[in-house]
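Example record used in the benchmark description.
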Amino acid sequence: MLVPFQQLPSYSRVWVFQSTKCITAQQKESLETMMSGFCEAWQSHGKELVAGFKIEWEHFLIVGVNENSKDASGCSIDKLFHLLSQWQTAQDLDFFDRKFVALVDQESLNFASIQEVKSIYKQGKIPDNQLIINTLTNTKALFESSFTQAISESWIGAGLSKAMV
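Model output (structure tokens):
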């Protein structure tokens, strides 16, 4: 059953899919239509899942499912990933390339490889308060509280010591 993403409870399971290419208006319309139909019919072992989605920053598809009444099974999750894989190929986008980090620059995004970001952060060329998009959030509560977060508080900043400037 499709519900607006904002109506999903905070404990809902969330997946964040990132594209380094901007999702165009035409692609967004196509993606919204496809995801609406998918969420409306999404099931796990014959039981309806309560799910919603949203598109953020023209680069991110966020999908959430309320697992309170029924957990999303491996097979049902595979269906989501398969659907997105087929759609992205036709649209020349890639939601599954996890080698890039989105850095928030005022109201825009810049993408850089994880290795590049780690290197320049460690060298002290990125400030601790540089915001990044956290694609590792796995609940709606975490998505709402830390979708954007300072690099020093992120998985990238964890364990890296910066050079003394």
